[in-house]
Fold this protein.
Amino acid sequence: MAGVNAMEKKLAEYKCDTNEAISLKLVRFPEEIEDESTTFHPEFTHQLYGDDEVAFGYKGLQIQLYYSAGNLTTLFKVKYSSKVTEKFECVEPDDVEGKIREIIPQGFCGNTDDFISLLEKEANFTPFGTLIHTYSLHNEEAGEDLTYQIHKVELSSPGFREYHERLQTFLMWFIETASFIDVDDDRWDFFLVFEKYNKDGETLFATVGYMTVYNYYVYPDKTRPRVSQMLILPPFQGEGHGAQLLETVHRFYCNSSKVQDITAEDPSESYVKLRDFVLVKLCQTLASFSTDKLSLGFSEDMATEAQEKLKINKKHARRVYEILRLRATDMSIEEKAKAFRLEVKKRLFGPYKKNQRELTKMRKCLRPEELASQVNQMDTQLQHEELERSYQEVLGDYRRIIERLARA
């Protein structure tokens, strides 16, 4: 038994956290290859390496996935100080390299010198597609305003299909349930964000992020664009690019009379907060959302104007109304605070009312012992406590959006 435990202990030394082992980098200049400050790591690796996100069989495992900043030319290298098969018989290491090869397209570099030589060609890279928006943001590190461009891209754009294959590999590391899309379906729209920067007097472009949107058919003659994937690459996160991209895409579709409304596929919590901010920013100038009308409650005029002018559906328009009403409400006045609280809880109470209707149906068809079990699950006191928790969470989210709007 002692021998088994000793063996397990030795083998445990050959386990590596794949989130730490994988190093990612967006390279503009050759000297950045060895600069640790430009390195970032995945948030998720479970889709390749299992739920425990561990690779077995190596000591000192380092997986380098470096990309040129613009065209995303890829350098892929695997290093380690020791491999389990060199020390132990009948023990196989995980195929860490094979897992990466499953998601990165062919044509990557296997050594640093080749990668550096390809960096010199970055000056020839220009953004794909049609420029639809330009904006500037102040960069503290650079101490200046930097310029960014958002492009609408067609799959037929020369070189874009291959570029997109490289770009979408980032999804696996930063979106928990990511999957690659079928780009041969012509109902996909692509939007890309690029930064303009200078190198030796030349203007170059770096990839910042992107969004994919699928256009669903709505009877009889409309479409419903649905945001499928959205990713701002980690070196650019927290700078406001997500809001710029989402607002630009939203305005792009608003210009089409064929668009019914704009939605998102399985939106994450962070995406919902971003969407709330962008939609409130857009709606705050609409007549139906004026301050004097907010205290009267959510109206069909609000839903109609938001849908017709901004392609916002009724559910999202309701959240916009609640945020704008909170901003216009003096919450230190108990009467006004109570009115706002009841208005929000009325919406939040919807699922609980559904539970009550289900309970009424159950009374007619369940045996007493089965009914008792269901009643316990729908205990009124617990529902009130859960409702209050939900309200406080919503209130916190709304206040953060209002603070962001004040800084915008």
Observations:
- The CA atoms of residues 85 and 337 lie 67 Å apart.
- The chain is about 45% helix and 20% strand.
- The first strand starts at residue 15 and ends at 17.
- The mean pLDDT is 91.
